[in-house]
Write a structure and sequence with these properties.
Blueprint: E1 4-9, H1 15-23, E2 26-32, E3 50-54, H2 60-73, E4 76-80, H3 84-91
Parallel strand pairs: 1-2, 1-3, 3-4
């Protein structure tokens, strides 16, 4: 079985979360911090299995945009705080 591909929205420093996700067999394909103006119209790659939105690091407009795009593509969206324990609980 190949690794599940994840897109992460929000957060600047996600090194430890990325490390833990890779240990669990997930592959981070794309990360956008949400800080740049052009992020509000970010596109989701078609090969993504799950989108994780860090609710404490993303504005409402970007969150709604990503949610709508993911729904169109049939991609699961999960919401989490930027802590490993929270991420792990929403994925498992």
């Amino acid at each position: 079985m190949s690794a599940m591909k994840i897109m992460i929205v929000g957060g600047d420093n996600i090194k430890m979360i990325t490390f833990h996700l890779c240990e669990k067999g997930f592959c981070i394909v794309k990360h956008i911090s949400g800080r740049k103006n052009n992020h509000k119209c970010a596109e989701i790659p078609v090969n993504i299995d799950i989108v994780i939105i860090f609710i404490d690091y993303v504005n409402h407009k970007l969150s709604e945009h990503i949610k709508k795009e993911a729904k169109k593509l049939g991609i699961k969206t999960v919401y989490s705080k930027r802590s490993w324990s929270n991420v792990e609980s929403v994925l498992i």
